[in-house]
Amino acid sequence: MKDYIRSLSDFMQVVRRTGSAEYGLRSVKKHAGSAKLIITSNDLSQKEISDLEETVKSTRAVLIKLRDIAPAELGRAVGRQHPVRALAIISLGDADLEKFLESVKDLEESGALSVARSARRR
Length: 122
Known about the structure:
This protein is an alpha+beta fold. It has one domain (3-105): CATH 3.30.1330.30. The protein has six helices and five strands; from the N terminus they run αβαβαβαβααβ. Strands 1-4-2-3-5 form a five-stranded mixed β-sheet, with helices on both faces.
């Protein structure tokens, strides 16, 4: 799991420097329509996850649900000083989304996280 945290942290450094992100579930819901990537911690209820999955179906966003990452750990990984339950990448800037998704493919296959892509993205 440590490689994944490092990969996420590196990806988010580029996003913070050259792109834009929104943090917190309320803000993620508000900006989900324009998001490129949504990442959630293991702290969301099934209803909250279902709502985000429904939103993602009608957008071009990718939803990554982290099963083993608590909000405090996600917050640290994305460079925040507080817990983060969910975040949305609005603008990638110079970050390479496909490369990042490729780096987590093994974790998706192992079940540590799940990746949902909208039908529009495929």
